[in-house]
Amino acid sequence: MKLATWNVNSLKVRLPHVLDWLLAQEDSDQPIDLLCLQELKLPDDKYPLAELESAGFHSIYTGQKTYNGVAILARTTSLPTPTDVVRNIPGFEDTQQRVVAGTYATAGGPLRVISAYFPNGQAVGSDKFAYKLRWLEALTAWLRDELARYPQLALLGDYNIAPEDRDVHDPAKWEGENLVSPEERAAFRALEGLGLTDAFRQFEQPPKLYSWWDYRMLAFRRNAGLRIDHILLSDPLAKACTACTIDKVPRTWEQPSDHTPVVATLSLNPLP
DNA sequence: ATGGCTAGCCGCGCTAGA
């Protein structure tokens, strides 16, 4: 089965891209079974449920006007409606809609999937940066419990953290900045410390492969990007993971999101 | 040395993203 994550930067604007991309994956030997989306930027009553269902995907989501918003799309023919749906981090008071989670029954046992839009942080030392660190702490504490309950767990999303210098096009220029600071990287390591593995780094990858490029400065053309969108897998899933790739193609389309999809292939069968 | 683009808003220039 295939899992993917994509920060679409407005689902209203990017719905055609999402549908086109999902349709294009149908031609591969393994289509997408689960797609986590971030930055929907729309309230729940504007969520394009019917269009996505027509395309063959059911959804769980939590949104708000203007900012944030996350969803998990699941292929109707291969996955049942999820159970234990959670919106936001339990016990963490937050008006910003950044987390949705659900458990999908599969032939290989329950699969816990979390779509997360980590706070940006704006600048090291800012109020938003402090919020980012508090949010990361709450997420990590919650995930410790989640992992105890769900051995097969995948955390997909826009982490707004480039874990290593090789995930940054110009590490010298970015040194110590928001998205790469030691505090943020320590938080990323703490997530790994729970027993989660960066699916992308399990495999040999071409150098200078990123998931986000600034709209400005011809950044995509110059490949001046960051790898900040990740798929972290619990041990059983990491062992079942056979590939993890970044699909740059949607970033080349007209009116693209500034992020592009990350895809993981697991040797885990959905329901027959 | 800085900003350079994009989306959304109730806007007719701003906030926020990363």
Structural class computed from helices and strand pairing: alpha+beta
Number of strands: 14
Largest sheet: 6 strands, mixed
The string of secondary-structure elements, in order, is EHEHEEEEEHEHHEEEEHEE
Residue windows where pLDDT falls under 50 for at least 5 positions: none
The main sheet orders its strands as 3-4-2-1-14-13
| Global shape | globular
Give the mean pLDDT: 97
Tags for this model:
272 residues, alpha+beta, six-stranded mixed sheet, 6 helices, 14 strands, globular, DNA-binding
Protein architecture, described:
This protein has 272 residues and is of the alpha+beta class. The protein is 24% helix and 26% strand. It contains 6 helices and 14 strands. It has helices at residues 11-25, 49-54, 127-149, 171-174, 182-193, 235-240; strands at 2-7, 34-38, 57-62, 70-75, 83-87, 99-104, 111-117, 153-158, 196-198, 212-213, 225-226, 229-234, 241-246, 262-266. A hairpin with a 7-residue loop joins strand 3 and strand 4 (70-75). Helix 3 packs parallel to helix 5. It is globular and about 50 Å long. The protein binds one DNA strand of 18 nucleotides through residues 9-10, 12-13, 39, 41, 65-67, 120-122, 158, 160, 177-179, 212, 214-219, 226, 228, 255, 257-258. Its EC number is 3.1.11.2. This is Exodeoxyribonuclease III. Keywords: Hydrolase.
